[in-house]
Q: What sequence folds into this?
C-alpha cells in the first residue's frame, strides 16, 4: 500500500488538507485496500500517512490490512439507540487527539455510482443524516472532488496485481460458462454456472471474497445487448450467437468482461458481425499506447466497424476505467473524449455491434492495462493482441 | 394492483398531496409492481390513480405492468450530455399538462437502505444532483416520510401472492443447498449451489427475474453468525452445524430465510443449541396473532432460549418486516418495540443462539404472514407451526 499512501499524501498536500474522510466502499478499497462487510465503515487518512478505520462491532475485522488502526462502534446492538452518534464522536475524538480540525479534512461530496460492500443484497444502510453529520464541517469542493476522483485513474503495482487476480477469477468463470453452453439450456442457467465458478473460488490462496454477476443473452436477444444485458429463460439453440456480460469482484477489486460466441456453427451473416467486432477490438488495442488520446482509441474501433458496414450499430463508447468498481470514475473512451492514456491505467476495450435486421449482436470486452511499453490485456487468456 | 393504488390514493388524500414522486427501486415495486432495470427510473403516482414511469431508453421496458404510462428519457446515449435535465423537463411537462404544481407532490427524503435494481453489481448511477433537481420544490416532511413508509407494512393480496412465489423460489434454493452439503465441500461452494438454483428459475412461469445471495458458515464459524454472515473456503466436516442466511428476490419481491442443519450427526451440545433455537422459533410463532405486540413475540422467543440457558446468546431482534426489500421499513420484533401485528404484515421470525464456548451457533428464520385468523408461514415446507 506504500505507493497508494504516498499518492494520497501528495493529493492532501496539493489540496492543503490534513486528512480525508470516506465511507463509500470503493473509496475504502482505494485508501485502505479493504472491502467493507456491511458498507458501514468510515476511513480517515491523515497527512502523516496514518490510516484509521471505524467499523461496526459486527464487522468480521479479519480482512483489515496491517497498518490500519481499527476502531469499533456499536452498530447492530439492541442496546444502542443511535450508533451513528457514537461513530461521529469517535471520529471527532481521533481528530481532536491529533489537533486536527474538521475544516482541514476533505470528503467526496458527490460520487456518481459506487461499489457494493460484501453484504451485496441491499444498499448499505448508512442513514443519509448520519452521512451528513459525519461530513459536516469538512471541505467539500468541486475541485477537490475532481482531484480525489483522479486518484482512481492510475493503479499502483500492488493494485494491478490485485486486479490481475480478479481477472484470473473472471476467466475461470468464463470457462465454466463456455462449458455450460448447450442447446436446450436457458440463458439464466449458463449465467448461474459462470457466477458459481467464481463464488466457489472463495478461500483459494489470496481470495477471501469472490462474487460475480453474469448477464447472458442468446439468439435474437443478442440484438438488445447494446441497450441492456439480462438473462432470460430462453432455451439456447444450435447456431445461436451467445453473449455474456460478466462482472467480477475479488477482495474489493473488479473486472468487467464480455464475450460473444457461436453455439455450434453460426450463420454467415452472424459470423460477419462477430468477426467485425473482433477486428474492431484488435484495432482499438493496436491503437493504444501511453500518450494516445481516448478518442483516438475509440475512433480506431469505430473505423474498423464502419469498414464492415456496422458504423451505426456501435451505439456506445469503446471503453471506461475499471478496477475499484465495475465502472471507475474517469474519462470514457468515446468520440470527443480528451482523456489521454497513461501507464497504470486500466480501461475496458469493448466494441460492439447490435444488428436488429440480422437478429443478432456481439460485443467483446477485455480489461487492458497501460504499461510504459504499451498495453497488457489482463483478461488475456483468450484475447491476444495481434500487432 | 387496484388495492395498492387505492391505498396510495388514501395516503395522498390524508397528506393533502396531489401526487408522489419516487426513484428508489423498492418504492417503484410498491407503487407500480415494477422492478427497475438500471435503477434510473422515476415513478409519478397521481391522486387520480394515474401512474407514470419515466425510464431510460435503454431499459428493457417489457416488464412494465399494464396500466402504467411509460415515458422514455435518453440516458446512456452518446449524443446526450445531460439526460437528467431532460428527465426533469419531462416530469415537469407531465405535471404542467395536468395543472399539478410541485408543491403538492411529495417525495420520500430519507430512506434508510433501499433495494437493488436488476443491474445489481453497482449502486444505481443516479447522480445526487439529479435526485436533488428532480425532487426540488416537492413536499419533504418527516411526518409525510413516516406515513409513506407505513405503506410498506401491510401487503395486498396481490403482493402476498408475489412474495409467496419468492418464498417458493427460495425453498428450491435451500433444497439445492442441502443437496450440496457434504464433508469436504467448502462453505462458498454450497452457497453458490443455492444461488444457482434460484437464478436458474428465471423464465419459469411468472418469473422474469430471480437472484439470490447466500451466506454459509460451518463448524466454528457458526458461532460468528450473530455478528455477520460470510461464506469462506472452509471445508465442511462430518458433525458440523452448517448455517445459511439466504436472501432471494423474484421480480422485485424479497424473502429472507435462515437454516441451520447438522451435517451428519452433531454433538449433543451442538444439538442442544439447535433444538433450543427451534423451540424459540415455535414459541414465537405460537405467540403471534393480529393485535399482539411485537415485543410480546420477541419475549416469547427470548423466554424459550432463557429456559434452555441461552438468554445471553440471543444477541439480536426476533424479526423485522420483509417483502419489498431484504429488510423492509417498519418496527422490529424486539424488546420494547411497541408495534402491533396486523393482518397483511409479513415479518421474519429468526431467533438465534451463538455460543462461542461451544464453538457453534444456530438461527432459524422464516417469513410469516399475519392473517385475520392467525399466521401462515410462507416459507413453510419445512417449518410447521405446532400449536
A:
Amino acid at each position: 500500500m506504500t505507493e497508494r499512501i504516498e499518492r494520497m499524501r501528495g493529493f492532501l498536500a496539493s489540496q492543503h488538507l490534513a486528512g480525508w474522510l470516506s465511507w463509500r466502499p470503493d473509496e475504502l478499497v482505494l485508501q485502505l485496500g479493504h472491502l467493507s462487510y456491511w458498507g458501514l465503515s468510515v476511513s480517515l487518512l491523515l497527512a502523516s500517512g496514518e490510516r484509521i478505520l471505524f467499523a461496526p462491532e459486527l464487522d468480521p475485522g479479519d480482512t483489515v490490512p496491517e497498518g490500519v488502526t481499527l476502531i469499533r462502534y456499536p452498530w447492530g446492538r439492541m442496546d444502542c439507540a443511535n450508533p451513528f452518534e457514537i461513530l461521529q464522536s469517535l471520529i471527532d475524538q481521533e481528530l481532536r487527539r491529533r489537533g486536527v480540525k474538521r475544516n482541514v479534512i476533505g470528503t467526496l461530496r458527490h460520487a456518481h455510482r459506487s461499489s457494493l460492500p460484501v453484504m451485496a443484497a441491499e444498499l448499505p444502510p448508512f442513514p443519509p443524516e448520519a452521512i451528513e453529520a459525519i461530513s459536516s464541517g469538512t471541505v467539500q469542493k468541486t475541485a477537490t472532488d475532481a482531484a480525489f476522483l483522479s486518484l482512481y485513474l492510475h493503479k499502483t503495482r500492488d493494485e494491478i496485481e490485485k486486479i490481475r487476480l480478479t481477472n484470473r477469477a473472471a476467466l475461470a468463470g468464463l470457462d465454466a460458462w463456455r462449458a455450460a453452453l448447450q442447446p436446450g439450456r436457458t440463458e439464466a442457467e449458463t449465467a448461474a454456472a459462470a457466477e458459481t465458478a467464481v463464488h466457489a473460488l472463495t478461500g483459494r490462496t489470496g481470495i477471501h471474497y469472490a462474487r460475480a454477476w453474469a448477464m447472458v443473452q442468446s439468439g435474437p436477444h443478442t440484438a438488445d445487448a447494446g441497450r441492456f444485458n439480462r438473462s432470460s429463460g430462453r432455451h439456447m439453440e444450435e447456431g445461436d450467437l451467445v453473449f455474456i456480460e460478466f462482472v467480477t469482484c475479488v477482495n474489493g477489486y473488479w473486472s468487467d468482461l464480455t464475450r460473444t460466441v457461436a453455439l455450434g456453427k453460426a450463420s454467415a451473416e452472424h459470423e460477419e458481425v462477430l468477426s467485425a467486432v473482433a477486428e474492431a477490438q484488435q484495432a482499438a488495442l493496436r491503437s493504444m499506447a501511453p500518450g494516445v488520446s481516448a478518442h483516438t482509441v475509440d475512433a480506431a474501433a469505430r473505423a474498423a466497424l464502419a469498414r464492415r458496414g456496422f458504423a451505426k450499430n456501435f451505439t456506445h463508447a469503446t471503453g471506461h476505467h475499471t478496477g475499484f468498481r465495475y465502472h471507475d470514475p474517469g474519462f470514457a473512451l468515446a468520440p470527443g473524449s480528451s482523456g489521454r492514456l497513461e501507464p497504470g491505467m486500466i480501461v475496458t476495450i469493448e466494441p460492439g455491434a447490435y444488428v436488429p435486421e440480422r437478429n443478432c449482436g456481439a460485443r467483446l470486452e477485455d480489461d487492458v492495462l497501460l504499461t510504459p511499453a504499451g498495453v497488457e490485456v489482463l483478461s488475456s487468456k483468450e484475447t491476444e493482441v495481434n500487432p
Notes: Residues 382-387 of chain A have pLDDT under 50 and may be disordered. Chain A touches chain B through 65 residues (CB under 8 Å). The two ends of chain A are 34 Å apart (CA to CA). Residues 157-180 of chain A form the longest helix (24 residues).
